Amino acid sequence: MRRAFRLPPFKVDRSLHIGLAVQLADALRTAIHTGYYAPGDVLPPIRDMSAMTGVSSVLVSRAIRILKDERLVCPRPHAGIEVCAESHPMWRGQVMILVPSGGSIQYLTVVGDALRDALTAAGYLPLIVTVPRKADGTYDYSLLELMLRQQMDVVVQLHDQPEISRWLSDKKISFVRFTQLGGGSYRGCLCTVLRRMDAAVADFVADCRRKGVSRVLQVSMDSKRAVDVCKAFRGTGISVDEWKVVTRVGRHIPGPAVTRGTIDAFAARFAAEGRRWLPDVMFFQDDYLATGALMALQAEAIRIPEDVAVVTWANIDCGCGPVFVKPMTRMETDAQADGRYLADMVIEGLRTGRYSSGVVSPKYVRGETF
Predict the structure, then answer these.
(1) Fold of 20-83
(2) What class has domain 93-195+337-362?
(3) With left for phi above 0 and alpha for psi between -120 and 50, is residue 159 left, alpha or beta?
(4) What is the pLDDT of residues 185-224, one digit of tens each?
(5) Which helix (H) or strand (E) holds 58?
(6) By the 8 A CB rule, do 245 and 261 touch?
């Protein structure tokens, strides 16, 4: 029989309308279900639990009776309060997945779904939590603080914000970062899975040089994390310009609004300038931008790639593709694969205690539009 004289993270909240005995029972129940205590473990004696939690021995006894009635523990004379074996498998542990709020997170939603499913299949209980913004733009950590009162083996931060990384670090929370932002060292960060764009961008630039391209136009939108090819063309002798066709209103631009705004911007430019502004190659920073631009180009009877070549950002399993009559030359990201890669890193760390950093990247795929 293993003995585990330790308590899960637990703080009495006397402001709640829930009794202290029920609060303690809830904390111990969660610890049992999530693998903090395993069958055969022995809980701390009632007197010790009372001293550790500040809850009277009477209320601790009441909490133990609640768990006994649920057949989660079995008080044994001269042996202690033993955790019982349940008929269904126990969870090996609990993992918090920290996701951004709002609708403009299609990629991270799919990554989070793949991570959640892999953790569940491996026997780890996933808990999805978000950190919303307040009206003044700062983050509201109240829900996160509440959820962290229970036992948590590790936090996976999909929310790509340094402010939240610093908050976790200051609170001495162990976490894994999934980020597009390089650099930054945070105490408590076990490893980082970095999402890098440079390999796909380099392949695109090499293709442009090989084909003798003179002018590239990056069609963009107001986005903080979009892939940017402009810097990569420095020193190549290829002229590159950026045209921002959609401006953010608030914190989220719905996909259809991006497509509509792109169509309108292209139509207005064709009406004002004709075709003389067309470059050798257009690169679309977003799949919804590409969808709108392709519609506008076809409306002007512009042939692809004969009149203008196009390359686009593309999502395999989220967003709108994009879909065209010819296979698109594209920088292709696979959110499902990235989520599974992240899950493998987290699960390996949970099992061995050793976390390793890694990289996920989109791929440059040659089609028939360039």
Answers:
(1) Arc Repressor Mutant, subunit A (1.10.10)
(2) alpha beta
(3) beta
(4) 788 899 999 998 888 999 999 999 999 999 999 999 876 6
(5) helix 57-69
(6) yes
